[in-house]
Amino acid sequence: MATTSHDTPRVLVVGAGQAGMHVAVRLRHRLRPGEATITVVDPHSYLTYQPLLAEAAAGNLEPRHVVVPLRPVLPGVEVITRAVVSIDHSRRTAYLASDAGAPEPLGYDVVVLAPGSVTRVLPVPGLAERGIGFKTVGEAIHLRNHVLAQLDTAASAGSDAERERALTFVFVGGGYAGVEALAELQDMARAACRHYPGIEPGQMRWVLLEATGRILPEVGERMGHYTADLLRRRGIDIRLDTRLTSVVDGHVVLDDGSEFDAGTLVWTAGVAPHPLLKQTGVPLDERGRVLVTEYLSIVDTPGAWALGDCAAVPDLTRDPGAVCPPSAQHAVRQARVAADNVIAALRGSALKPYRHTSAGSVAGLGLYQGVAQIYRLRLRGMPAWLAHRTYHLLTLPTWNRRLRVVADWTLALLFPREIVSLDALEHARDEFTNAAAEAARRR
Ligand SMILES: Cc1cc2nc3c(=O)[nH]c(=O)nc-3n(C[C@H](O)[C@H](O)[C@H](O)COP(=O)(O)OP(=O)(O)OC[C@H]3O[C@@H](n4cnc5c(N)ncnc54)[C@H](O)[C@@H]3O)c2cc1C
Known about the structure:
This protein is of the alpha/beta class. It is 33% helix and 22% strand. The chain has helices at residues 18-30, 53-57, 70-73, 127-130, 137-155, 160-166, 176-192, 220-233, 328-347, 381-395, 399-414, 430-442, and strands spanning 10-14, 37-41, 46-48, 67-69, 78-80, 84-88, 93-98, 101-107, 110-113, 117-119, 131-132, 168-172, 205-209, 237-239, 244-246, 251-254, 259-261, 264-267, 271-273, 290-291, 304-306, 311-312, 360-364, 370-374, 377-380. The strands form eight sheets. Strands 5-2-1-9-21 form a five-stranded parallel sheet, with helices on one face. It has a five-stranded parallel sheet with strand order 11-18-12-13-14. The longest helix is centred in the C-terminal third of the chain and has 20 residues, at 328-347. The protein starts with 9 loop residues before the first strand and ends with a helix. 42% of the residues are buried. The site of flavin-adenine dinucleotide has 33 residues, from helix 1, helix 7 and helix 9. Residues 10-335 form the FAD/NAD(P)-binding domain. Belongs to the NADH dehydrogenase family. Keywords: FAD, Flavoprotein, NAD, Oxidoreductase. This is NAD(P)/FAD-dependent oxidoreductase.
């Protein structure tokens, strides 16, 4: 593993998501040749464009097209596909997970922390065994296959109880991850029902649990109510002020007293800062996010910067003490300021503060349905759906991905939905290992 033997300073970017990848892109464009070496470390070789995961899960998009491979986007940047497990900033050293055993050291001069967040899982009995999150492309692919496989299970179920369980889908958390995933998957499952003669769309039970009194806070209260009404009209059981208390063996128990069996439980009830942050020694706030100044430099830690979901970035457009919510909208804009400030610090010039007034949010709720609040403009239905698609097309990195997504959307409009469940992908080696075991028995 390379250390800081470089003649030029090394800027190490930890995490190449919405924040980290855009920092690296900007540094690459703005640094003079030979001014610094840029190194990006991420366990994945691609950025996941999370706002389009729900469309990938619904089959409107090829999952490969909602991820952006890092190496073509970052020519000349050192890309290391590993996880950082700890950082000793006093020694300017990051430690990277290694198959060989002990973590390997990687020296740096300047570090930019952007490992994002992880799903916030609560100690609900049965949740770890039965639940699945909705943050990664793997989870989106799995959910699509799983929902379609549940229809297959229901179609050939031996009892009413088995059938009802297979046709019950529970989502916990009414933010945009949960609402978009539920709305898109329900839309897909309803369309798929016409290929299952024994299953009527109305026989499926889709439930959204939200612990507070509203859903989709990202689009404002009024549009949140509109979304709840729209989803209820689509037959979705939305339960506000309701918590999941247990899901042992798929038996759902709620704090409103109701109980039922469910074959699917998707957990999108918030995010927590990445656990790596506790292994870095940098100052954290009471919620575990990195404490940064308005310049995105880490408080009392020269040569260290943080941004995106992992950081408590002061929101200068709101009351003192307010911090930016975790969103791609902020992460991408913070990335520009962070990269410019890293360069300014290297050159000894003035830093600029991060300030961005939220432009609002857009959300897709299935084919031709959406909701949006863009500044003071409120949109619903088809116009909101078009705004959702246009916005994400413009913010999706690279023309390559944008064109592929347009092609996918066009094909999806021209042809009926693809409803095959490729759950065999998740057990790709089973057939071969069974054959090998059989051969070993015969020997
Ligand atoms: C389903 C869904 C829909 C969303 N929709 C919207 C939307 O419509 N609009 C919006 O503004 N926001 C949306 N968001 C939120 C948005 O995606 C995040 O706020 C944004 O991605 C945060 O950027 P980030 O770079 O901080 O984290 P991420 O984009 O999550 O990137 C973190 C990176 O760090 C890497 N990493 C993790 N661990 C390590 C490690 N140990 N070492 C090195 N690297 C590591 C990860 O692999 C990842 O590449 C959505 C989120 C989800 C889950």
